[in-house]
Design a protein that fits this description.
With 206 residues, the protein is an alpha/beta fold. The protein has one domain (2-205): 3-Layer(aba) Sandwich (Rossmann fold), CATH 3.40.50. Helix content is 40%, strand content 23%. It contains five helices and seven strands. Helix 1 runs parallel beside helix 2 (75-88). The protein binds S-adenosylmethionine.
């Protein structure tokens, strides 16, 4: 019940944010997006899924990729992604879909891009298990996001702040190791992407 309600809430609020999203987020994260996609090293004919693709800010770094699929729950965000793709001359499969229940066959994708989604999606374990399912054996996923360090307990300040940040933007107390450990994916590379390691870029392998 909770994930269904939270997913509907996400759709509503991202439809609301869509007109201003790029102005708020685009320049702030550009260098980290580039780095994350460099690490993923997508091949031109690989099947690549952008999960929670938003307005498509990653597309700037995926030119030349011919096997792109983008999914998101917000049609407002996806409308902007379609316009960006057209501007860039990119052809891709764009679908409104819940990242916790992917409508793709097993072992379908070579790679998945998870940028700013695991702390936003209501059930990140369900999401990553779906990523695991749709990846081919040996496939990879790249995560760029903010996480509480594994093994640390959220203090009172963070726990209180999380009540607010979760409502307007994102959880700030999720731990990537806890999520990944509930799948068979393994962490192949993990680097700090700012704010004393709060932001991380992580490459996962199936
Ligand atoms: C912070 S934005 C990140 C967008 C994009 N990945 C980026 O890097 O700019 C989070 C996105 O996740 C989407 N989202 C939230 N819950 C989702 C779900 N259950 N399934 C798919 N997308 C979801 C939102 O609509 C929003 O576009």
């Amino acid at each position: 019940m909770w994930p269904e309600f939270a997913t509907r809430y996400n759709r509503w609020r991202y439809n609301l944010y869509a007109p201003v999203y790029d102005r708020v987020v685009a320049s702030f994260f550009a260098a980290r997006r580039r780095r994350s996609i460099e690490l993923l090293a997508p091949g031109p004919d690989e099947r690549i899924l952008l999960l929670g693709a938003g307005t498509g800010l990653d597309l700037d770094y995926l030119q030349g990729c011919r096997g792109l699929t983008a999914i998101d729950v917000s049609d407002g965000m996806l409308a902007r992604l379609r316009r960006r793709a057209a501007r860039l001359g990119l052809t891709l499969d764009v679908r409104e879909m819940d990242g916790q229940r992917l409508d793709f066959p097993d072992a379908h994708f070579d790679a998945v891009i998870l940028h700013l989604i695991l702390p936003v999606i209501p059930d990140p374990v369900a999401c990553l298990r779906e990523v695991e399912r749709v990846l081919k054996p040996g496939g990879r996923a790249v995560v760029f996001d903010k996480f509480l360090a594994d093994g640390r307990r959220p203090g009172l300040w963070r726990a209180s702040a999380n009540l607010l940040t979760r409502l307007i933007a994102t959880d700030i107390d999720r731990q990537l190791g806890v999520i990944v450990n509930q799948t068979t994916l393994h962490i192949e590379h993990d680097e700090s992407a700012g704010m004393g390691g709060f932001f991380r870029i992580v490459l996962l392998r199936k």
